[in-house]
Specification:
The protein is α/β, with parallel strands linked by helices and 361 residues long. The protein is 33% helix and 13% strand.
């Protein structure tokens, strides 16, 4: 049997510093008989020399396009716009299986080139639970940004986060920053929706660490949404994972001038989906200006919707996520026997079938 090659690509997004594969993990893969190629990157939080010292074959950024067709290309965020035809198997977060913006053109690239897409979001066991996610640090960072924004609002000073985001050296450094911006005796209240998941637990941890009173909602509380209760908190942190059509948690006409709610952090950040429970914005916010005014008919609520929040804590996020991913990278050689990869591939095939049927119709 020919050896499997896993090819870690450089990320196209300039602000993406995380990695799904650590140097130590690469060494384990090679010990298991898998070849590992790593594209050099000036952005990745773990330096090129660490991968080289681990024994990886190094390649130039973007060289995956010329990789052998049986190499599996590993990444995190979106691919560059070229090439038009994708002939490899790619593993990354594609955000295409819920008919998000651009989903048809992306799937067409794979179908045109004969490649396939194993979307990390759909790596699930037979129990339907995801096996690898950045959720904890996404919730942690999303709540931290909301807290920083609220403290600046409270004293009427310019927004610290809207001066532009930069990755933090560590979670401890982030804690110090929040404490330095906080007013003595001033603590907001926060509502975390999706409190029982990974993102929700991350949000709750940092909020409670900084003395915030947290209300925790799960599925039961969102079956019949109490919007007055939402508007009665200072902060809303949305960590809900929505896979079907539901009434919005908040729409523009729900926001009133006298609402207590002043900051929303949409950690789930799915504005291009028909399932978006917070239709208050049309696109993710960016690192340059992470907080914008939410769409509303009355009042002002700042909204944060950064779609790669864990990149702001790239070391901790990469270590946790890569540890979860490693067993499944090892099983890629026999992925037809691994339920996680079988389910992942089935999601891709279903998305392709859905697109083909919609085009015929």
């Amino acid at each position: 049997m020919k050896k499997l090659t896993i090819w870690l690509r450089d990320e196209a997004r300039m602000t993406e510093r995380r990695t799904p594969l650590l140097p130590e993990g690469a060494k384990e893969l090679m010990a298991a008989g898998i070849d590992v190629v790593v594209e050099k990157s000036d952005k990745r939080i773990f330096k090129n020399a660490l991968y080289e010292n681990a024994g990886c074959t190094m390649a130039e950024p973007g060289a995956w396009e010329q990789a052998p067709t049986d190499a599996v290309i590993l990444g995190l965020k979106e691919l560059p716009a070229a090439p038009r035809a994708l002939e490899h198997t790619h593993i990354y977060f594609a955000h295409a299986f819920k008919k998000q913006s651009g989903w048809q053109s992306l799937l067409t690239r794979f179908m045109r080139g004969g490649g396939s897409l194993l979307d990390i979001e759909y790596m699930k066991g037979d129990d339907g639970r995801r096996v690898a996610a950045f959720g904890f640090w996404a919730g942690y960072m999303g709540a931290a940004l909301a807290l920083l924004q609220w403290h600046d609002q409270k004293v009427g000073r310019p927004s610290y986060i809207n001066e532009g985001l930069m990755p933090h050296e560590s979670a401890k450094a982030l804690d110090h920053l929040i404490s330095s911006r906080a007013m003595a005796g001033e603590k907001p209240t926060a509502l975390v929706i999706g409190a029982g998941g990974r993102s929700g637990s991350g949000a709750i941890k940092i909020l409670e660490r900084h003395g915030v009173e947290v209300t925790k909602w799960g599925r039961a509380e969102t079956k019949d949404v109490d919007r007055e209760a939402i508007l009665g908190h200072d902060l809303l942190i949305n960590c809900a994972y929505v896979t079907g059509q539901i009434p919005p948690f908040l729409a523009p006409h729900h926001i009133k001038a006298d609402s207590r709610l002043k900051v929303i952090s949409d950690v789930s950040c799915d504005p291009f989906s028909d399932y978006n429970p917070l239709p208050l914005y049309s696109a993710p916010t960016c690192w340059k200006t992470p907080a914008i005014a939410a769409k509303s008919h009355e009042g002002r609520v700042d909204l944060i919707a950064v779609d790669n929040l864990p990149s702001l804590l790239p070391t901790e996020a990469s270590i946790e996520f890569a540890t979860m991913m490693l067993p499944y990278l090892k099983s890629l050689r026999d992925r037809a026997q691994d339920p996680v990869w079988v389910n992942c591939n089935a999601s891709y095939q279903h998305a392709c079938d859905t697109m083909t049927k919609s085009e015929v119709a």
